[in-house]
Design a protein that fits this description.
Number of helices: 6
Helix content: 25-40%
Largest sheet: 4 strands, antiparallel
Strand order of the largest sheet: 1-2-4-3
Bound molecules: flavin mononucleotide
Radius of gyration: 17 Å
Strand content: 15-25%
CATH topology: NADH Oxidase
Distance between the termini: 33 Å
CATH architecture: 3-Layer(aba) Sandwich
Order of helices and strands: HHEHEHEHEH
Length: 169
């Protein structure tokens, strides 16, 4: 599968079959996340892998959607604010680093026929509290992963045309 095919294949999966993700698949996905680039190579991230019913229920409290409980596995990405690169003008780069690692996860999952969904609209404060995270860590993206329920793939990618977004100078 070439990169364009993989980019097309990945979509936000909000319905899962419930089949477990194998340890091999999980390790592959995590290795792809580990290889992601980051500013000054500081790798200011932690990947929390949540598979137990108890941990999954904690995260379900932070993002109350019925479909979330169908996924057998969640990866929560946190940024380490004491590690991330901060540019001279004060711009923090941890969120950018996390976003790259998150998309590596989603693409690696798609490559293996697994579905995933970026979730940022969760209660990050509650999540921080329920997981008892260190003060310097902030939860940024929650990614459910699992086999997609059959027959729900979107038929088209709704995206702006290149002519609307590319400025050639
Ligand atoms: C930064 C970011 C945050 C997102 N947060 C959520 C979310 O909280 N809940 C959700 O269902 N989808 C979320 N999404 C998924 C987007 O809605 C989705 O990627 C977009 O509509 C394009 O659809 P596609 O992923 O199927 O190609 C998020 C995506 C990104 C990149």
């Amino acid at each position: 599968m070439n990169f364009k095919d993989l980019s097309t294949k990945r979509y936000s999966v909000r319905s899962y079959s419930g089949e477990p993700v194998t340890e091999e698949q999980l390790q592959y996905i995590l290795e792809c996340a580990r290889l992601a680039p980051s500013a000054v190579n500081l790798q200011p991230w932690k990947f929390y892998v949540m598979t137990s019913q108890q941990d999954r229920e904690l995260l379900q409290q932070c993002y109350k959607r019925d479909w979330l409980s169908q996924a057998p596995l969640y990866i929560l990405l946190t940024v380490q604010h004491d590690v991330e690169w901060v540019r001279r003008d004060g711009k923090r780069h941890g969120d950018i680093d996390i976003a790259i690692a998150a998309e590596h996860i989603c693409l690696a999952a798609a490559e293996q026929g697994l579905g995933s969904c970026w979730v940022c609209n969760f209660d990050a404060q509650l999540c921080h509290q329920l997981l008892n995270l260190p003060e310097t860590e902030e939860p940024v993206v929650l990614i459910p992963i699992g086999k997609p329920a059959a027959g729900l793939e979107p038929t088209e990618k709704k995206r702006k045309e290149l002519s609307e977004i590319v400025i050639r100078r």
